Amino acid sequence: MRSLEDITGSLAHIRILDLADNTAGFCSRLLADLGAQVIRIEHSDEKGAAASTPSTPFKQDLFDLYYNSGKDRINLDLKSKKGQDVFLRLLKKADMLVETFPPGYLHQIDLGIDSLIRINPHLIVASVTGFGQLGPNHNHRSCDLVAAACGGQMYVTGTPNNRPLILPGGQSGVAASLFSATGLLLALKNRLQTGKGGHVDISVQEAVVSTLEHVLVRYFSEGTIPERSGALHWDRTFMVLPCKDGYFHLTLFQQWETLIEWMDSEGMAQDLTDPQWKDEAYRKARVTHVIKVIGQWTKTHRVHELFELGQLMRFPWAPVQSPSDLLRCPQLEARNFYHHINLQMGDPVKMPGLPFLTSRNDNSSGRPVAPRHQWNAEHVAKNCNHNALHFKKAKKHKQSKYLNKLRILDLTRVVAGPYATRILADHGAEVIKIQTRITATGAESNTTPYFNAWNRNKRSITLDLNQAEARKLFLRLVRISDVVVENYSTRVMPNWGLDYNCLKRENNALIMLSMSGMGQTGPYKDFVAFGPTLQSLGGLTHLTGYSENEPLGPGFAYSDIISGLYGVIGVLAALEYREITGKGQLIDLSEYEAVCTTLGPTIMAASLGQQNGSTTTDFHLDDTSAPYGCYRCRGEDRWCVIAVFTEEDWNAFCKATENPGWEKDNRFNTNSRRCRYRKELDRLIEQWTSNRTAEEVVKRLQEGGIAAGIVKNAADLAADPQLLSRDFFTIMNHPILGNLKTERSTVFLPAGSREPDTVAPSLGEANHYVFGELLGLSENTINAYIEKEIIS
Predict the structure, then answer these.
(1) What is the pTM of this model?
(2) Strand, helix or coil for residue 358
(3) What DSSP assignment string belongs to 704-765?
(4) CATH number of 15-212+375-388
(5) 740-788: per-residue pLDDT in tens?
């Protein structure tokens, strides 16, 4: 077993017991990469695992390898007295436990969460289930397909009048794991102050809903129910178009005149040179024509020709890359993104690591460690000598938030960065958002619902960092702050003289999170990108479509939310390291790499030359189970999903649908035969579902013990009884926008800390607090800075 002296990662002093399936196995893998010792307990009763893990040896081997890299592994029978004795001995020396059993299952085998925390009061438990521990649907069966439907991802992914699509690669488990890791690290921060552990309740449905970016923002503010729009971005500003040798993702309207001059120089601009096309509203209203003309031009170019030339002109364009393309990417190679693992089955496999590097030369550099060992359970229990738990004695007062007294300077814009700082603000950090009147437009306009969604619980100041005096004020703020977060392109902060090396001279304990499209190093470091183009660059768009020749991508900026969560995890781990060492660090996060991590097993399959790991398939159905798919129901654009994994499930499904004929049909009497005759079976099932409402179908199937779900749109989510019962939504009063409904934090922590306190700030509302109270400037001095537009 390893000790604290063996490694120097941020979480080297933390021990985690892992009882998770693929719903949250990635959570403890992330923490292992950050230095934690993770003991994976492979229990003989994998209750419910079949509903959430691939069943073929090939797929399961790769999921197992990716999700469980860096963990020690033991086998225990948790139902036996001997197995429980060993488990409880391990538990007494553990800091965290991650489990994904159905609600109440551990209590049934005398290992209830409350009992475990009584045995070890310092223990932090993350329970990750389909719908959470409480609520009317908490016992409903779930899986990746059901979570994607009930969480709203599927309804907005695909093309109009066609079947909704699921994202590839088990994304509900990825999202749930990132939120779970965030919750565990937040609870760890709280334990430093109180000495107490606690129970973190993660609902996979809520995790998926929280990735939807624009969907609920638009519904709650405009009453709009976003629909599927194919490869066209919801605000009509991005589109996937064909090239000579593939597909390309580009912005339709950014730097319009430069783009039209380029096309016109090649005789391809057609009527887009006419003056009326300079008006963006005019272009958006006629976007079909714009797409047609630009698409004819892109067909005359190769993908990487457009990528390289476009990036030279600062266009945030990207090729639609396959997993095989990712294996050859010079940027990922330059940043040592892949860990090369030798497998007994043949050539080394490339496995993605974490999407960030740090300024410390140790195992928390954001790259994966090698797969660890299979241990004898008795050996682990006897030799599990835990390092001293690192926390302070409990204080007499009760903290209402976990990150009180933490101050963050927020230089981020749009979604990914603001989402990261919003999560930290939601849990008590004082986040000071630095804006200017010139740049507070569009997505950064303080008076829009979109801005309000990502910037609640923050303060706003105006400071023009293009001016030397403003930068001096910023450095004074750095001296009294804990964290700086920025998501500019890599040139900006160094050009201002505000890179990490400069900032740490002012505050050696400072943690700086730099979130850029490609990372701070490598041949692509100066390339620009947005969420949709990063999804194309990172493989998601290629794998999300009805066929390989129709890459569509997600119907929302999934990459922005994922990158924001990774940023939070990096900051919280760095704070834990600082508690022990007193040292700060730079976290260099690549949002491109963040997208790649969501497709780990698929990229690994491609590196082994497996075609089913590198090409797109209709709906990304589990090709080892049937029925497993999306089915039309009664009503306009109403759909449900159904997932059957075992023969027991199949028998229950036939009983619930009152179709004993299916059970007796020789084509369907085994799982392998059902997979062989999938199309025929799906046709019969859709004949049954299309005569019933989605609500009726799902109610009947869930009561019969079958994993099923409604493909929910924004209105469905807003009225979802499970979400409402868990108080997932709250109403906040904005002085200009009025009452705005918004979701609470997905991380459901003990002792409160889920309630958003304040709406997003008005522009510069905290100028006098920050410059007056915090920096001690006089009123006259502040006014002088305002006159000079330094405080702008």
Answers:
(1) 0.94
(2) strand
(3) TT-EEEE---HHHHHT-HHHHHTT-EEEEEETTTEEEEEE--S-B-SSS--S--SPPPPTTT
(4) 3.40.50.10540
(5) 899 988 887 765 555 567 999 999 999 999 999 999 999 999 999 999 9
